[in-house]
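Hey L., structure's done. Input below.
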Amino acid sequence: MPQKKKHIAFWIIFPIVMVIIASLLIFYFDLANGPLVWFIVELSLIVAFIVIRILFRDRKFWVRLLTWVGFFGTTVAIIALCKPTTEIKSAAYYSNPTPIAETLNVTSGKVKGIYNVDKTVKIYAGIRYATAERWKEPVAYVSDKEIDGSYFGPRSMQPASNPLMDSLVDIYAEKGWHPDYTMHPYQNMSEDSLYLNIWRPNTDATNLPILVYIHGGSLTSGSSAYEAYNGETMAKQNVIMITIQYRLGVFGYFAHPDLKEESPNHTTGNYGLLDQIQALKWINENAASFGGDKNNITIAGESAGSSSVCALCTSDLAAGLFKKAIGESSSLAIKLAPHTYRTEEEAYKTSANILSEFGCTTIEQLRKVDASKLVNTSYSNSEMMMDGYALKKDPYQVYLDGQNNEEALLNGYNVLESDAFVVPQFLFSPTNAGNIKSRLTSYFNEETANQICELYKDRIAQDAFSAFNEIISVYWFIMPHHSWSNLALNNGVDVYRYQFTKENGFYGTYHSGEMIYCYGNIDRIGKPFAYDQKDYDLSKIMVTYWSNFAKTGNPNGEGVATWNKYIANGQVQELGVNVGPINDKYLDLYTIIDHFLETKIAELAA
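Output:
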């Protein structure tokens, strides 16, 4: 090729190639969520490579090739380094937090806390409430040592999340790409993780109501330190908010007959639930020390945290440790719980597989496996079980027998609960009118699928994708809350039921989208583009409802629309652009699914 044509080709092709490469790398470094320094280094490398490549454009082929090899080799090395760091997480949201002069004296030690930025809230984080050996019941922790309450304790052992996948999920939720090159470090992690955190108003008030929040995460992930349920806003409502940590996954819900035999209480499989009960005992014992009223405790949780709340409502061990319950987006109080609960037989099959996976024949051998290896087991441990100790009966049966623990219940769900689970599953083959029946059959059976398709025939013709997602949302999340509400109501519990419908530029009405509203943390999750004044207005209303319920067992109060007590198969409170009672539109679908559950129970019993 003549020299002139080579130059023309170079000045056309090279800029296009570099724009493509730079765009891909800029996108990657946002997804990877690594330290900003590596993003800057990579940008500098791109600029340097462009300059060198221009200067060397007329050199021999092998020289030009070496510049490309050097560029890509260095880029690969930088990419390998571009991953979030792991840090001890501060309980403050500002630099150099102001320490509280006096210490908080509790059974775990002397806690040196910090103030929030305007000194309206006192924060005491990272308080150890118990210790526990692997696969043994927790033991109360007692000490007189000084505790630095300005940092959260380490989160429980859990598989490492993939920052690329997390970012892609955010892009899907955000319905667009909003670059953020601020690194978000991972919180440090440990098998020794039984800590809790306290937010209380900076007043001399005593006997304040206490709200205890149990985080979600499929019983396999999560932390008590996430911004979505930071307790500062609730403390400003004169409610003490406490978030707790508990063992997760294979450390919290592994079950084996040998463990049951060695336990003095003959229990296995519910170590995380026992941790939660131990935390409630600690809170009851120490409530007066931090100005709380042990006779006015509300437990709350979302997703697996809500399943845990439901389990605590049916555990003899938790009786008397709380008065009220808030459940968001999960329940076990249904004939057959669709998730977060399993039979003893299923649990033991999983444990046998895990023993085999790590080449072990005994529990003692498995106990010696390093936590960093064990946490990555390929078998899920995301369910509780009826162990005869923490859960003596199936939760549904406890409610039928009128033996549940809560005196008032606030519970509900979001309208697009299942999207976060169903959409990724069928990402490359979206549900349509041609395949929806076969997919429903795989979730239920052919008879039930036919009945649902008939009920939803107009919706399916119009939008089979959203119809399918709604049906699964009802099956996994909405109907369990319907069942929980009716069962509690039959036992004389004051029930307040909601449906969250507020769309926004982020999670909206997907699973977990309501959390930042009801705990007042829209500003803390770093998505300012996603919310407008209507979101903040709704958050103020929901914070009022949740805090009023924590105080009195009734969400109603001055400045908010009336929330009527739930009646059997009655209206629910819409929480969205509109706030007020709406009809439950899923009643016919409940009937079909209930018949399916009856059939399934009969098959299991046969």
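The CA atoms of residues 19 and 467 lie 41 Å apart. The first helix runs from residue 3 to 32.

-- N.
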